[in-house]
Each structure stands twice: as C-alpha cells, then as structure tokens.
Design brief:
It contains 11 helices and 22 strands. By secondary structure, the chain is of the alpha+beta class. The protein has 3 domains: about 210 residues, D-amino Acid Aminotransferase, Chain A, domain 1; about 90 residues, no CATH class; about 120 residues, Acid Proteases (Cathepsin D, subunit A, domain 1, Beta Barrel), CATH 2.40.70.10. A 7-stranded antiparallel beta sheet has the order 11-10-9-8-7-12-13. A 6-stranded antiparallel beta sheet has the order 1-6-2-3-4-5, sandwiched between helices. Strands 15-16-21-17-20-19 form a 6-stranded mixed barrel. The two termini are about 35 Å apart.
C-alpha cells in the first residue's frame, strides 16, 4: 500500500467530511433514532424501533413484558457499541437472556436505560435518549465466523459510489460486538463480488480466524448488490456526500442500515490493503444519476482479484503486445478488433468511430463524460462499459473513447485489464 494513496485523519475531516457532508446530514448520522426515521421515510430498510425512552418516568411505567423475546436496547448517541444490550430470549419471572448468555432482570434493564438517559455512553457524557430496536441476528452465511453477535458491513460511500467495504465479525474478545477497537475482526471486501480478500485483528494482518484454521479470505457476503445499493441510497437520503454506512443482513429481511457515520474510521484501508485517497480521487468529479449507476461504476473501477473466479482457476495466460480481441457489440455480437497491449496506459481505450459502429455509444452504455482539452480545443470525452474477450477470457471493464482514426490499432488494452495475464516483453522489439 503506497503512502501517497492513504487517507489520513486530517484529510478525511477537512477534504471530505466537512466539505461534502451537510449539517443536516451530520445531525442525522449522530442520532440512530433520526437515522431510522429518515430512512423509513424514503423506503430504505433499517431495523424497526420498538420503543423510545426520553424520560425516567417512561422507564418506570412501561410494561417491559410487552417487548418481544428478542430486542436490542441502545443509546441514541452511543459510541463504539458501548451501552448496547441485546436480549435473545425471554425466560420467566422478569428474567431475560442476552446474546452473551447472561441473565438479567427487568430491574437491570430499567437501571441500564436510566444510565443511558444520564449520558453514561454518549459523547461528552451528555444526556441521551434510549431506544429498543428490532433484533437482527446473524445471517446463515456468517454463523461459523461470528461469535454470538451480529456482523455488519461498513461501506464507504462517496459521491453516490461505494468506494471501499469491510466485513466486521464479532469475536469472544469483543463481547459479540462488531467493533474493531474492542477486538472484532475486519475483513476487506472486493467491491465487484462481495468476497473477502484480507483480514485484520487489532490492526495486524491475519489469515485464519483466531484459535482456528478457518481461512478468512474467500467469504461470500450474501445479497451483495443489495448491500451496496442500500448503502448508497442511505447516503443520498441523509445528504452525506462522504459517509460510512453500516449494513446488517437480517436472516429473513436481507440488508438493513444499522447506522451512518459522517467521519468513518480509517482501519478499512488496512483491512483492504489499499488506500482510500486514490479511490476517492478517481470518482470525485463523476456525475452519478442514482444508486444503481454508482454501484455499476464501483464494480468496474474497483474490481479486485475475485472479479472473475473462473479466471483465477485458469491461472495466468501469456499474451503478446498485439492481440486480436472479440469486442461485444451493443446487440451482443462479437467483432474481432486488432488491439495493442500497452502496459504504459492504465485504462483501455477504443476509437470513437469504431465504438459508434459497434453500438457502444448509446446513452445506457456511457458511464460518464469528462471535458478534455487538446490541441484541437475542448471536447466531452465519454467513458463506456467495454466488454471483450482477450485470449479466450471475458474482460468487463471501463473504456475511454479516443480519436484513433488513421492509427494502426483502433483499440488499446491498458494494464488495469491485465491482472491475470503475462505480457511477452520481447514482442516490443518486433
């Protein structure tokens, strides 16, 4: 991970959190109750709030037996998972069983709620509001990975684009909480597939789940596309241009927004082994229409090593510096094009006239446009979704449009598309 690509605390705060987040958005993110209300209003799923406690008299007069067998008791402005009690089962005679298999009484719950109101778990110990929320539990895919508590997925959303994600798994040390500072595991996630790639514990890279021989790489997060679109829709609803959206996956209801953060932590960079700064810079000036558009661009720009599992199984293929590729046209046909493999270029590009003839410049296929100044003046140059076969493998990428009329090669293959290929260098001398 290059130092220049890392996003630091000051840069996060000054360049992104303050610049792109509205005061209203920050206020919403600071309150879990307001978060639930705003999301409910626009149809973004989040765990249902069962009861809100604002005054001590409400706590004493409330019929606690009216709660369902499972619920979570939380402070509205709590930090780092502190002050949360998750009840898993109602026993008898006013006794409850928590997810940590501790027995607590209704009297204990009342005292804990009073502590929340007095600010025992809020920032600056200021008076707070307590609320009981729907119990989420663990999705089946996480049962052997998470210790008792509910895992969540932190998605960094910027400019309506999910730029980085991390799966957080509760451990025995973290007390079943998905909080890295308390000992939870952080797993980097490939944006394109929702498959975990790396893992950290207490800031250090690990391969196996502590105390076991279970590899943490390769875990598939269910409903991945919906996780990403839910995160983006939450950022849009809250007017947070730069945010960390925490998603939990309900076993029956699917992805839900647990909370939002206007200044999300930066350990997600260590978990992914990649800096945020470069990714943020790449999408800063793009015009995104909606959540689906943002997710589509994220998958093309930030696809990692699991973008195509079949390619990984096939291994590395050797290609030359000149290759005949089969470009998939707008009407799903395959047209052969002689392309130059250029490791000096990052993105692949294709001639404008050729792209138009192949039906690739339709409104639906153009991802974004940028103003480019050349010796001939200024022009809007589109970037498209480009799909082609190289050495028998399907490459799904972004391609820039360029005027290559009269040049020998109408298409250039850049190095972002060459992750699973070996280029024969000696071809350059021919």
């Amino acid at each position: 991970m290059k130092i220049s690509s890392i996003l630091g605390l000051n840069a996060r705060t000054q360049l992104y959190a303050y610049r792109y987040n509205t005061a209203r958005g920050k206020k919403i993110a600071d309150s879990k109750i307001q978060t639930e209300r705003i999301l409910k209003r626009v149809g973004v799923p989040s765990p249902k709030i069962l009861k809100i406690f604002r005054d001590p008299t409400e706590i004493l007069s409330f019929d606690w037996d009216s709660f369902p067998d499972r619920f979570a008791l939380k402070p509205s402005r709590g930090l780092g998972g502190e002050g949360i009690v998750v009840v898993k089962k109602k026993l008898k005679d006013g006794v409850w069983l928590t997810t940590q298999k501790e027995k607590i009484t209704t009297a204990d719950l009342k005292l804990h709620t009073l502590d929340i109101l007095e600010g025992a778990y809020s920032m600056g110990n200021e008076p707070d509001v307590a609320f009981a929320q729907e119990y989420v539990g663990r999705a089946e895919a996480f049962r052997k990975w998470a210790y008792r508590g509910t895992p969540d997925v932190r998605v960094i959303v910027f400019n309506k684009i999910p730029v980085m994600a991390m799966l957080r798994l509760p451990t025995k040390e973290s007390g079943g909480r998905a909080n890295l500072h308390q000992g939870a595991l952080g797993l980097g996630v490939d944006i394109a597939t929702g498959i975990t790639t790396k893992a950290i514990w207490h800031g250090n890279q690990i391969v196996f789940k502590p105390g076991t021989e279970k590899k943490l790489r390769g875990i598939k997060i269910p409903n991945w596309d919906l996780v990403l679109t839910t995160a983006v829709n939450a950022s849009i609803a809250s007017r947070l241009g730069y945010a960390g959206i925490d998603i939990v996956i309900h076993p029956e209801k699917g992805p839900m927004v647990l909370e939002m953060n206007a200044q999300p932590g930066l350990q997600i960079q260590i978990a992914n082994g990649e800096g945020l700064r470069r990714r943020l810079d790449r999408v800063d000036d793009l015009e995104i229409t909606d959540a689906n558009h943002g997710v589509r661009i994220a998958k093309l720009l930030f696809a990692g090593r699991y973008q195509d599992a079949e390619q990984l199984e096939e291994g590395i293929k050797t290609i030359g510096t000149k290759e005949t590729v089969k470009v998939i046209t707008g009407d799903k046909k395959k047209v052969e094009v002689l392309a130059k493999v250029d490791t000096g270029a990052w993105n692949s590009s294709i001639d404008k006239e050729l792209a138009e003839n192949l039906g690739l410049l339709t409104k639906e296929n153009i991802l974004w446009q940028k103003k480019v100044t050349t010796s001939m003046g200024s022009e809007m140059r589109p970037t498209i979704n480009l799909r082609y076969y190289l050495a028998g493998r399907l490459v799904n990428t972004v391609g820039t449009i360029a005027g290559r009329r009269g040049l020998k090669h109408a298409m250039i293959i850049g190095r972002r598309d060459l992750q699973n290929f070996l280029v024969k260098v000696d071809d350059y001398t021919k």
